[in-house]
Amino acid sequence: xxxxxxxxxxxxxxxxxxxxxxxxxxxxxxxxxxxxxxxxxxxxxxxxxxxxxxxxxxxxxxxxxxxxxxxxxxxxxxxxxxxxxxxxxxxxxxxxxxxxxxxxxxxxxxxxxxxxxxxxxxxxxxxxxxxxxxxxxxxxxxxxxxxxxxxxxxxxxxxxxxxxxxxxxxxxxxxxxxxxxxxxxxxxxxxxxxxxxxxxxxxxxxxxxxxxxxxxxxxxxxxxxxxxxxxxxxxxxxxxxxxxxxxxxxxxxxxxxxxxxxxxxxxxxxxxxxxxxxxxxxxxxxxxxxxxxxxxxxxxxxxxxxxxxxxxxxxxxxxxxxxxxxxxxxxxxxxxxxxxxxxxxxxxxxxxxxxxxxxxxxxxxxxxxxxxxxxxxxxxxxxxxxxxxxxxxxxxxxx
Length: 399
Known about the structure:
Elements: H1 3-11, H2 23-45, H3 47-54, H4 58-61, H5 63-82, H6 88-108, H7 112-139, H8 146-154, H9 156-175, H10 177-198, H11 213-217, H12 222-241, H13 243-247, H14 256-302, H15 307-322, H16 324-336, H17 340-369, H18 374-377, H19 379-391
Helix pairs in contact: 2-5, 2-7, 2-8, 2-9, 2-10, 5-7, 5-17, 6-7, 6-10, 7-8, 7-17, 8-14, 8-16, 9-10, 9-14, 12-16, 12-17, 12-19, 14-15, 14-16, 14-19, 16-17
């Protein structure tokens, strides 16, 4: 990259002159997302070890996941709003350094309360990171490449779920959970150098362009997208959180790992496909994805006795949900315009509410109706989601 291009890409707050994908910079953002998802999800697979080591029950150890989610939920909107005038790379680095500090504390702590505090502030770092990542990726490229840039920057999430968490859980059983968190910290050190080397800096949002929070919420298109986030992601998390109880009533009772691997692999394929097509067919991809997930959910509900139907349905589920983050973040970034980072923070908040809501409502449905009814019940959420996405064709989900 020559010096002229570098000056253009760092000095202009809105437009990049790059006509090709800046792979190194975008993959650095993807790695940040990878570390974020690892930090969030690793305790679930290492819960027995963490509980034994800290001298608490598994239920109490599980609150390390809860505190992380609470930190993200509470931080996303207020901190993204407070820092929207900051230059982008220092803010990105501050979030990444937060992961380094708090994962290291988690790895070294032998005090349960200190571990929870560290997990909470790791979640705070995640809330801000997710609020700025989409806008950062879009500013690295020209308008025609924004969708592909988003897909590359988001690929860390499905890779972490498909590969990072299972591998971390596997090696944690042999090397110990503390060493796994330490390894994530070492990976974070490498990422800091990578960001300093390859990720360009951009100015924050000028003070004169900073709309109040409520006015960003009232921008046409923002609210329909947030509704789709809540319903689509809530439906996903009801099923994903309780996939093991569902599979316990099928031929895959002892192969939950295989089913989740298929979901993870197809999710990666899904985000790749979204990256190829999102620039021209954003709305159609949203409609196809929600419809595909609804059909897969119905098939899982009626095909519990057919292993082939289950595997095919899980594959469709992964394909249709893998690109959900890219589709929804792209849509809300377009709708938010100059206030895209604040709109993104709303999406992060809605996403975390859907994650928490999936755990609570899914548990209620599990006790009330049983695991076999979980997939079919998702239609109640997915039909309104599909309808709103269809109606919001001009502002929320264009093209």
